[in-house]
Design goal:
Oligomer: single chain
Strand content: 15-25%
Strand order of the largest sheet: 2-3-8-5-7-6
Number of domains: 2
Number of helices: 16
Number of strands: 12
Amino acid sequence: MWTKELRRHKGRTIATAGAVACAMALLMSMLSISNGIIATVESDIRDSSADLLVGARYDTNFPHGHTIASNLSSWPEVEFASPALRSIVTVRVPGPGTPNLSAVALGIIPGEFRKVLRPADQALIQHWFSQPGDPFFDASYQGAQTGEVVISTQLASALGVGVDDVLEFAGDATAPSQTFRIVGTIATELSSQQIIQEVRWAFFHLSELQVLASVAFDDGPGNTSIADEVNTIYVSLTAQARLDPDGARHVQQAIESAYPDFAGMVSTKSERLQQLQNEYAVARIFYTAIGYVSLVIGLLFVACVVVISVSERTRDIGALRAIGVSKRSVFFMILGESLLLVAFGAALGILPAYLGSAALATYVASTQGVAPNLTVFTPELVLGAMARVVVAGAIVSLYPAWKATRAPIVEALASRG
């Protein structure tokens, strides 16, 4: 009985189901993307070996980075501590008239930094520095620099260069440039723990970037020394400290006690997860709101179509009432037709939702330099979205179903003419 009216008006049924399918597809795509972004970032943090992060506030630096990291590494609870410096540099291909590009540079101690990354991210690295340490710093900033750099594939593509090519880097467009040889590239999917978000970036030995970024101070007439400034220290705990539920918290408190200036700058994994969840809460609300707005529009269209259908069938409903069909039966007949139409449309929207979320994830990955697996398309997500759509469909169908029960039998039968 419920499908008879739907089959009678095939064109209207298909159009209405299509509207529901579009609403369903957009809702699921938005939920998939928002859940996927959060899940990706959370997994990056959980899988990273950086149990604690010492981060300077407001993109500032703090001094004695190598010394502090070396001291922390000597603690029995700490496996290693690795300092890093983030800075903006300009880069160009040597030659007259070649344009400058801006890039985000990260000065690191290569061997230690690789340990910070997830195993999946380590596999993305193609070649690496010949020196795993920081030899220029070991020589008290007096020895020969390695002149090595590892760049992102996007930056390499933008400059038209590859491994063993030479690039000129400078702290800014007006500073003297230095020449570096490309010793490797890293795919832009590398985004562990939001260490890298930008598309164009470059890795240097920490001390060499400190020189390049002009992190120096005047140490007397004619004597300029390099300031050992960094803005991040990644701290990895030993297995025993990591297994202790309060191990990270105890080391955090010990660091802030040993270095009072770091108060409020040391964060654990759980704190970073909470911070990211708070930061992405607005984005999740935004994505979800877009999906629900489309759902409301689609279901209001369904309600309008069902109201029109009820108006067209006034005499049929009157005939049913005249032969003894109860108001309750009429109510559930109209409600059942509406729910069947909504459920059919929602089922049609599953495949477009999957394809749409995959296309959107690919676009975000290509423009933001992050992993393309940003979507979370699980049976739980599909069933949850279906349930939301059906429940919302039932709510908007209550009025036309109620309206069908209100027409007086005599007037309904008189409408035959």
